[in-house]
Amino acid sequence: MGVTTMYAASIRKAVASNDINQMKAVLEQAKKQVREQKDLAVALVELQEAIDRMK
Predict the structure, then answer these.
(1) How would DSSP label each residue in 10-55?
(2) Helix (H, G, I), strand (E, B) or coil at 3
(3) Dihedral (Cα; 7, 25, 39, 4), 10-degree rounding
(4) Contact predicate 23/15, CB 8 Å
(5) CA dihedral of 23, 24, 28, 29, whole degrees rounded to 10
(6) 54 pLDDT higher than 50
(7) How far, in Å, CA of 10 to CA of 15, rounded?
(8) Would the pTM count as exceeding 0.70?
(9) In this structure, are residues 42 and 48 in contact, taking their beta carbons and an 8 Å threshold?
(10) Would you give the distance in Å from CA 52 to the centre of its chain?
(11) Cα-trace Rg, the chain
(12) What digits encode the pLDDT tens for the residues 10-48?
């Protein structure tokens, strides 16, 4: 499985597959994406603060 942006539909598709290996792979990929997105949230706050300082 390649790198894919996780969406609820992708997760539900894995659940519906009843394929434990696919489900585990999707779970790990989703966990990784959630960890990485925390950095995105911080970066967005920094961007907003930079914009606010320019006003």
Answers:
(1) HHHHHHHHT-HHHHHHHHHHHHHHHHHHHHHHHHHHHHHHHHHHH-
(2) coil
(3) -50
(4) yes
(5) -40
(6) yes
(7) 9
(8) no
(9) no
(10) 27
(11) 16
(12) 899 999 999 999 999 999 998 888 888 888 888 889 999
- Tokens 């489900």 -> residue: 23
The CA-atom distances, in angstroms, between 48 and each of 23, 42, 43, 51, 52 are: 37, 10, 9, 5, 6
* pLDDT tier, 1 (very low <50, low <70, confident <90, very high otherwise): very low
User: Domain map of the chain by residue range?
Assistant: 29-55
Q: How far is CA 11 from CA 20, 25, 48, 51, in A?
A: 12, 10, 31, 36
Which residue type sits at 35? R
